[in-house]
Write a structure and sequence with these properties.
Elements: E1 11-12, H1 60-81, H2 86-112, H3 116-137, H4 140-151, H5 153-158, H6 161-176, H7 183-207, E2 211-214, E3 227-229, E4 232-235, H8 245-255, H9 260-279, H10 285-289, H11 311-323, H12 327-330, H13 336-351, E5 353-358, E6 371-377, E7 381-391, E8 401-406, E9 409-410, E10 416-417, E11 420-427, H14 440-458, H15 473-476, H16 478-487, H17 490-493, H18 508-517, H19 522-539, H20 549-560, H21 577-580, H22 587-603, H23 610-619, H24 629-637, H25 643-652
Parallel strand pairs: 7-11
Antiparallel strand pairs: 1-5, 2-4, 3-4, 5-6, 6-7, 8-11, 9-10
Helix pairs in contact: 1-2, 1-3, 1-4, 2-3, 2-6, 4-6, 7-9, 11-18, 14-16, 16-22, 19-20, 22-25
């Protein structure tokens, strides 16, 4: 049995006060891991990032990676010497855990740590662990130890469903590397994987590379909207929010002007992905990528006078004019303290969970404004930790995301390895006169990212290989998108949205206006997502492609989007998601459809329904990626949704009368 408290720590209320001044964060001297003070165990020593003793200094990454690699060698030796059985899967998972605990942590530190030495050491650790993973994926003896287990029908039938699924997922990883092929083909698969990785990195860098044009070719009065260097104007983005039509048009045509090198890189990337998929036994890369997802195969996916540079700007104008949703009217009601309290109220009512602030040890966090939250269940005790890296700082990536630092798993001694995650946002600091105030969009993003965190915290899988958000892409966004529905429900918002100076509740009609404004141009946005998803599927479908990637873009845009293709542009060369979401871009729409169905069936009537919350935890969150996603959806909805159900769920979200509370808005 698991101890209720893993250690005694001082826990307090959430650190962001609703109406009081907070402290602006700085990552200066004394804040980082070199300060003195008491360490994790109470002895006078440095604690190290996330409580890992070695990581009190950048050099510690080398020690951590060497320890992980040494442990990996021992585990490989052990699993290869044992007869096949359930123990095989446990050792595979421990092997995965020992490498992930360094790689996941390093993945975060390499982009978020304010000190360059830490970032570089983490980058090196990622490379070193990555090399080891490639080596393991082509270790024939290791593969055979798993193959023996899966080839023995009697043994397979004796495995519980989660263990069997994890064994199959490990086997899938092996086969993608071509290990089941003869030596010559295996070498080819390894070479293709390396080439695909290099092409992916080159393509990603190219998606953000600015274009330049000679100054005299642009009207002088729009120069000030761009960076001008010498005789050239630099265009580094689409400037979609610019009020001047000409600025938007110029940015669109110049930024999307085709670059021959980038075009060649994309064609090679798609072609090599197709070669790899065929080599390891799939008819297309799409078939390989969709293995184990909700969609299962490409055939199941449905592809249900403005110019292309206009929609983002005009939809913003309509929202503001029709609904008067000026963010500054809303911000005073959404202090960070109030929003966190809102999450606490929601989680307590739905799941019996409370977030408590815990004082980190010296050196445990990378910046002094990072806060550590303990996630505590009313009867089960401590479930895990969330580190909140919420505030803007120099050199911090401008993106909101969730990082798994340590996955949950059942250890050999019967203890549960608690999950640890980081939520990274880019919120403004508090000022002398006010706490940190969030726009409605920031508040929704906070709820979205906290959905990922709860998925990680509440996953109680036996294996870390399928912990929390380590699940198929088209299921991973369901918990986070579902949280957006809670963030847009007046009954939830009224629990916490209070003016930081007067204590007045956010008026109901303001919430109604905000929710309605989100539906402005929502159908066009969805059509755009369908276009992107279709384009991605065609690119990763049957090869060789029947024509150029630009011609395919033009045809698909005209068929699925409705706004005309602009000659001499190649938007696909800026489509960075082709790297991380190759053949899986549809996942966002699929996750939104599932979240919509779960909201309507289980929470729309009462967003604080504890029985529905417990069912959500039991049927969906608890399994991480340890159960087939469609089985989790069926368990939650108590029916098997059809393709028509998915489509209806997306379309009904566009209905202005969707939120029932809007019917009687003031």
């Amino acid at each position: 049995t698991r101890k209720r408290w893993h250690h005694v720590a001082r826990r307090g209320p959430l650190p962001w006060k609703h109406g009081a001044r907070g402290r602006g964060g700085s990552c200066g001297a004394g804040a980082g891991p070199r300060g003195g003070g008491r360490g994790c165990s109470g002895i006078k020593m440095l604690c190290g990032l996330f409580g890992v003793p070695e990581l009190s200094a950048p050099e510690g990454f080398r020690i951590a990676q060497e320890n992980a690699l040494r442990k990996a060698d021992l585990l490989v030796e052990r699993v290869c010497s044992l007869p096949p059985g359930p123990q095989t899967v446990l050792i595979f998972d421990e092997l995965s855990d020992s490498l992930c605990r360094v790689a996941d942590l390093a993945d975060f530190v390499k982009i978020a740590h304010p000190e360059r030495a830490f970032r570089e050491a983490a980058e090196e650790a990622c490379r070193s662990i990555g090399t080891m993973v490639e080596k393991l994926n082509t270790n024939v003896e290791l593969y055979q130890s798993l193959q023996k287990l899966l080839a023995d029908k009697k043994l397979v039938d004796s495995l519980d469903p989660e263990t069997r699924r994890v064994a199959e997922l490990f086997m899938f990883d092996f086969e993608i590397s071509g290990i089941h092929l003869d030596e010559e083909k295996r070498k080819r698969a390894v070479d293709l994987n390396v080439k695909i990785l290099d092409l992916s990195n080159t393509f990603l860098m190219g998606t953000n590379f600015p274009n330049k044009i000679e100054k005299h070719l642009l009207p002088e009065h729009i120069h000030r909207n761009f960076v001008v260097t010498g005789s050239h104007v630099i265009i580094d983005g689409l400037h979609a929010e610019a009020p001047d039509d000409l600025v938007r048009e110029a940015a669109y045509k110049i930024f999307l002007y085709p670059n021959a090198g980038q075009l060649k890189c994309l064609e090679e990337l798609l072609s090599n992905r197709d070669l790899l998929a065929k080599l390891v036994g799939y008819s297309t890369y799409s078939h390989r990528a969709l293995q184990g997802t909700i969609a299962k195969n490409p055939g199941k996916l449905v592809h249900p006078e403005l110019m292309p540079w206009d929609p983002p700007y005009y939809s913003g104008v309509i929202r503001a004019e029709r609904y008067n949703i000026e963010p500054s009217l809303y911000c005073p009601f959404f202090s960070l303290g109030a929003c966190m309290e809102g999450l606490n109220i929601l989680f307590t009512k739905l799941l019996g969970i409370t977030l408590y602030a815990e004082q980190p040890a010296k050196g445990e966090v990378w910046c002094e404004d990072v806060r550590k939250l303990a996630v505590v269940h009313e009867s089960e005790g401590l479930l895990g930790y969330i580190y909140c890296d919420f505030f803007q700082r120099a050199d911090k990536p401008h993106q909101d995301c969730h990082f798994t630092i340590r996955g949950g798993r059942l250890k050999e001694d019967g203890e549960y390895q608690l999950p640890v995650v980081v939520l990274m946002l880019n919120l403004p600091h508090s000022s002398r006169n006010s706490p940190t105030l969030l726009t409605p969009g920031m508040m929704e993003n906070l709820f979205h990212e906290m959905g990922h965190a709860m998925h990680s915290m509440l996953g109680r899988t036996r294996y870390q290989h399928v912990t929390g958000t380590r699940c198929p892409t088209d299921f991973a966004e369901v918990p986070s998108i579902l949280m957006e529905y809670f963030a847009n429900d007046y009954r939830v918002v009224t629990q916490f949205a209070r003016h930081y100076q007067t204590g007045q509740s956010l008026p109901k009609n303001m919430v109604s206006r905000l929710c309605e404004s989100k539906k402005v141009c929502a159908a066009a946005d969805m059509q755009l997502q369908v276009f992107y998803a279709t384009l991605d599927q065609i690119y990763h479908g049957k090869h060789p492609l029947r024509t150029s990637t630009t011609d395919i873009l033009r045809e698909t845009q005209e068929k699925f989007y409705g706004l005309p293709y602009v000659p001499n542009t190649a938007w696909q060369l800026r489509f960075s998601h082709l790297v991380g979401y190759g053949a899986k871009y549809y996942s966002y729409l699929m996750s939104r459809a599932v979240a919509s169905m779960v909201w309507k069936e289980c929470f729309q009537q009462d967003p604080f329904n504890r029985a529905a919350g417990e069912r959500y935890r039991r049927e969906m969150l608890a399994h991480g990626g340890g159960r087939e996603p469609m089985l989790m959806v069926q368990g939650m909805l108590q029916k098997c949704p059809s393709v028509d159900d998915f489509v209806s769920a997306l379309v009904s979200d566009l209905d202005p009368d969707f939120e029932t509370f809007l019917m009687d808005s003031e």
